[in-house]
Amino acid sequence: MTTTNNRPGSLVLLGINHNTAPIEVRERLAIPTERLADATRTLLHQPGVREGLILSTCNRVELLTLQEENTDADNSSIQTKNKTDLLRFLHEYFAVPPSDIQPHLYEFREREAVRHLFRVASSLDSMVVGEPQILGQVKEAYTIARDAGAVSTHLEALLQRTFTVAKKIRTETQIGSSSVSIASVAVDLARKIFGSLQGKTVLLVGAGKMSELAARHLIHQGASSILVANRTQSQAEKIAATFSSASVLTAVIPFEALYEQADRADIVITSTGAPQKIFDRSHGQHFLQRRRNRPMFFIDIAVPRDVDPRMNEVEGCFVYDIDDLQQVAAANLADRSREAEAAENIVSREVDKYQERLQSRDAVPAIKALQQQAEELRQAELARSQSKLADLTPQQREAVEALTRSLTAKLLHPQLTALRESVRPKDTK
Amino acid sequence: MSLLWLRVAVFLYGIAALAVLPAALYDRPRWRHVAIPATIAAVLFHFVSLAEMLNAAHHSLPVDTHETQTLLGLILALAFLLVYWRYRTVSLGIFILPICFLLGLVPAFHPGQEATTFPLLHTRWIFLHVFLLLAAYAALLLSLLASLLYLVQERRLKQKSPTLTWLPPLETTDQIALKALLFGLPCMTAGLLIGSLIAQVTVGASYFRDPKILLAFAMWLAYIAMIFIRRHSGLRGRRAVYLSSFVFLVVLAVWAANQFSAVHRFTAP
């Protein structure tokens, strides 16, 4: 179990991620959520580990530990020992030979470990930069480690700061504001047209994994009705059944009635294998007329295309084919990269601030000891002069007290300032 | 004191107009937290200033162009706050807040000197007449702005260019445009009706032969026609902007006609 220890420990982060290890290695080290508490407790029992946390996602496994600081031994030999201990933990816990792990392993210490943690939680180190899940995963790992008694003062402070930094990056940059997958781009565009998707109707024409995925995204955003049209009636019914739920109304439209009923839908997703266009410009005009110009959004995922691109010229009809969606996704990805630069700057500033605060905190015991020693000296000197000061009035005694206190403070001031300065990082002086 | 409050309000509108840029264009919540409170504070100071101004002048309605401008600015700022409260969008503030700032700027530093002794100006009804018509004008301006934003966003979506994230969704701008018009209609109708009744009692039938008054009724008809067309055909986008622009031009003409009207000027010659 963790012990309260005010001596600063040594922060070590060891791990593998999607950049350093292939899926074959990552899957051998992945820890399911239900086993994470047990793994964290085992980690805490490793020699020298005072506090610890394990982050295990599909893209990374990382051990964040606060190690005992041994001032007697050589620094490099301690670092090697720490790493060996953690490697042994991975080897023993997962029964994976160290030689299989070591080539993919990265290690960060102190300041670099803090920077890495900030970057991970802010999704700067993710496979898809800016994805929002990682912060939740770090928080979950923290909760499990805290409940297992593996996180106390030092890691607690670090992790709280990590969450603040990640939140700051989310609010001060637009790193996660744009979508980078085809399905989420389609949803984003639908939201640009309709605002809220609550109560909107989606028509699926044809079948396809991507069109169904897009429809699921739309349902997740509030779309409440799914219409399905397919040349094969049984196939249409099968697709409709997969979407059916308490909050989603599903219906099958006979393919021959498609042009009479398509205007019921606000969003049409087409993915048929038809060799010629299913919807042309005149269909768009007809639909818009029947909808009294309420907009319609056509998402054409089919190749060859199902919707005549000239339908986009009809006021109120918005047609996006697979290339259009891919272009938007690529542009959004480029936007994220630009925002990532701004986020990296925030991380750098926050790492500096955190280190400064940490080091100031390290100086506190020395400052307190110095102040206490000075106060004891002052009291001793006053006691020694007690007989000579016996005739003083209470006001005069008060003045002497104030004088000695002021002298002590003034004499200590340069030393305390020097002490505070000495723990500040050189670049911030 | 009313001038001081107005200057404070103008200063706050200026701050809000600047803060709303990063708040809307870069979606920075911190700046939104500056823009909205600054607008609320500006509206409060503006209201106090207007009340004091009218009280000091011993008349119930804004008489000179500057007073009318400042009241229009106040109504527009209130409209912006209402849109923010209902739709959580500050995008319209990019245009509305600078207008509020400019409408308040001239009266704040060059207050009008027009004097009047017209007895009508002391009635509450005439204040209502002016206030309701200004509210209708503000609603029309808001509707026109929203329609323009709709047009810009629609073009971006059609051209497959990256959408402007600061623009509200098409359906939201369409809702703002239509609801502003629907709000403006009763205001304009009641405002004209009250004005007509007062004119009938005080001036008589000759009032209704004044070109400004005839133009005002033409404006009302155009306003009704626009709402009818928009509601029944679901007119959106380019054609909606053309229609709103046309009615807005009529409104400007009605406003300008004050300068030439024989019976609708209350100021001393």
Strand content of chain A: 5-15%
Distance between the termini of chain B: 28 Å
How many strands appear in the DSSP assignment of chain A? 10
Most extensive chain contact? A-B, 27 and 26 residues
- Overall shape of chain A: it is elongated
Q: Strand arrangement, largest sheet of chain A? A: 7-6-5-8-9-10
The overall pLDDT average of chain A reads: 87
Largest sheet of chain B: none
Low-confidence stretches of chain B: none
Which regions of chain A are unreliable across 5 or more consecutive residues at pLDDT < 50?
1-5
What is the general shape of chain B? flat
Q: Cα-atom Rg of chain A, whole angstroms?
A: 32 Å
Number of helices of chain B: 8
Tell me what you see in this structure.
The complex is a heterodimer of chains A (429) and B (269). Chain A has 429 residues and is α/β, with parallel strands linked by helices. Helices cover 54% and strands 14% of the residues of chain A. Chain A has helices at 23-29, 33-44, 75-94, 98-101, 110-121, 133-147, 153-172, 182-194, 209-220, 233-243, 258-261, 281-290, 322-384, 394-423; strands at 10-17, 49-56, 60-67, 106-109, 201-206, 225-230, 249-254, 267-271, 296-300, 317-321. In chain A, the strands form two sheets. A six-stranded parallel sheet of chain A has the order 7-6-5-8-9-10, sandwiched between helices. A four-stranded antiparallel sheet of chain A has the order 2-3-1-4, with helices on both faces. In chain A, strand 8, helix 12 (281-290) and strand 9 form a beta-alpha-beta unit. The radius of gyration of chain A is 32 Å and the shape is elongated. Chain B has 269 residues and is mostly helical. In chain B, 76% of the residues lie in helices and 0% in strands. Chain B has helices at residues 2-25, 29-57, 65-87, 93-109, 124-158, 170-202, 211-233, 237-257. The mean pLDDT of chain B is 83. Classes of the chains: A alpha/beta (429), B mainly alpha (269).
